[in-house]
Design brief:
heme, oxidoreductase, membrane, 10% strand, 4-stranded mixed sheet, two-stranded antiparallel sheet, binds protoporphyrin IX containing FE, microsome, alpha+beta
Length: 469
């Protein structure tokens, strides 16, 4: 009886939406009641192809389309003005983020808008330019390390850990994060696993719980170690400023200060913030670095120009200063163009907590809106060469689109990336050191991409490094 009732309601809703005059066009393949579930499942072994198809369709249809998972509506927006309106009106994250909530709960990425506002303000000082300046020395050291090892991306995170503690993060922790992200992506493309009462009976949930337990134990060790180091050194703190050295604090020290002295965070919240920052920084930065190296290998003339600039800036010194970083203008253009053409985080999403009236359509409260970063980066306002990799476009502001919303690799609006300056600094430092010593060859056109919240190579990204003499 209940099933029949739900069925009738779903059909009514479906017809109502079909007739709604201000509803955006539907993605092909919609069926009564279940909406686009079958269309989604057709792509379950290649999530990126599905997301790309949907985002391309949004671009081809004026920048806004709709999908239905059952009666739940998902809009996909790639019009820069509409995206700006949604991002500034709605600060709650889309229902996909619920999938990660058992793990990172109140971390910035998944928290509800009210918690996010308070916590983001508290964490902000840890990403202040003055803190970042104190990391440059360590970034230089790690970049030199990377040049000699050229294995995985070795970089000190802004957690403020000693290198040996950082190793815990780099190895076991990072592997476990990778596994848990795979589980989240699997659940994301299998709608029948969305309801918690079904999901909690599956082997996936059991595996997720095991990983969460291991991850919490690992991060706990790091937190306790840092806490006792700080106590042993008797660091006196005041409003995030380390009164012994006069420096702002890296994020772990700031979190501990806020928890122990101001009681602003519980121990669980510290873990959730650290896990979030590792998730948000690790895959993104390492994938972008790998992609840029592949691009440099693919375009030898671009690599030579970067090499010349890097040589001029380094002169005879071993490391880069903050002033040096600001002189690496062409390298910065290359990084920006890679972030545009190969959108590392291709989509983010919001929950619409109110009806949004746009010039052409009305988006309904309670639905989800995917903001297509990938689509904005390919918006026609970039010009006819939008799909070409052309770092030069960044050297002449007159050739760039006037609407700033078409370039948002670190997301759009207030809920954007807190680590964007850190990311740019560490990318510039690593790349300058690598290009100065090594020549890279590779071919990005052979790469097939996969989506794991971050867009990354699905097949081994082969590169060859030769030493420059
Ligand atoms: C090139 C590298 C990076 C890219 C492309 C990137 C991109 C993004 C994007 C698109 C978001 C929004 C995610 C969403 O709404 O679902 C985000 C959020 C975030 N990122 Fe990054 N990120 C990068 C590096 C970093 C680094 C290095 C850190 C930390 C050191 C970091 C920390 C965060 C955090 C904590 C959030 C959540 C912010 C909030 O909601 O207040 N990211 N990032």
């Amino acid at each position: 009886m209940l099933v029949v009732l739900f069925g009738v309601i779903a059909v009514l809703l479906w017809y109502w939406w079909k007739r709604h005059p201000r509803s955006p066009p539907s993605f092909p393949g919609e069926l009564p009641i279940i909406g686009h579930v079958i269309a989604m499942l057709g792509y379950r072994n290649d999530i990126w192809s599905f997301i790309k198809r949907v985002c391309d369709y949004s671009l081809e249809n004026g920048g806004l389309i709709r999908l239905n998972v059952g009666s739940h509506i998902i809009y996909v927006v790639s019009d820069p003005n509409d995206t700006g309106v949604v991002a500034s009106t709605c600060l709650e994250k889309g229902f996909f983020y619920e999938i990660g909530k058992d793990f990172v709960q109140k971390g910035l990425l998944t928290s509800d808008a009210t918690t996010w506002k308070t916590h983001r303000k508290l964490l902000h000082p840890a990403f202040n330019q003055q803190v970042l300046n104190t990391f440059l020395n360590e970034m230089n050291i790690q970049a030199r390390n990377l040049v000699s090892q050229l294995t995985a991306v070795a970089q000190r995170t802004s957690l403020g850990l000693e290198a040996k503690d950082q190793n815990i993060i780099d190895n076991n922790y990072a592997n476990a994060i990778q596994e848990i992200l795979n589980i989240f992506c699997y659940r994301g493309i299998h709608p029948w696993l969305y309801p918690p009462f079904i999901y909690k009976r599956t082997a996936w949930k059991k595996k997720e719980d095991d990983l969460i337990r291991d991850l919490k134990n690992m991060i706990n060790t790091v937190i306790q170690k840092r806490r006792s180091d700080l106590k042993a050194n008797n660091f006196v703190t005041n409003n995030g400023v380390d009164s012994i050295t006069g420096r702002f604090k890296p994020v772990l020290d700031l979190l501990l200060h806020l928890a122990d002295e101001e009681h602003a965070f519980t121990d669980d919240e510290i873990k959730e913030h650290l896990d979030t920052i590792v998730i948000a920084s690790y895959d993104t930065t390492s994938t972008v670095l790998q992609t840029i190296l592949l691009v440099l290998g693919t375009y030898p003339e671009v690599q030579e120009r970067v090499y010349k600039e890097v040589q001029e800036v380094f002169q005879n010194s071993e490391d880069l200063s903050m002033l040096d970083l600001s002189k690496l203008v062409y390298l910065e253009a290359v990084i920006k163009e890679v972030l545009r053409v190969y959108s590392t985080v291709p989509i983010v999403s919001r929950k619409l907590d109110t009806d949004i009236v746009l010039p052409n359509y009305t988006l309904r409260a309670g639905s989800t809106c995917i903001l297509s970063i990938y689509g904005l980066h390919l918006h026609p306002s970039w010009g006819p060469d939008v799909k070409e990799f052309k770092p030069e476009r960044w050297l002449n502001p007159d050739t760039l689109p006037t609407n700033p919303n078409v370039y948002v690799p670190f997301s759009i609006g207030k809920r954007n990336c807190i680590g964007k300056q850190y990311a740019m600094m560490s990318l510039k430092t690593s790349l300058a050191h690598i290009v100065r010593k090594l020549h890279v060859s590779g071919d990005i056109s052979n790469i097939k991409w996969k989506y794991e919240l971050v867009l990354k190579p699905a097949n081994p990204a082969l590169m060859e490094f030769t030493i420059r003499y």
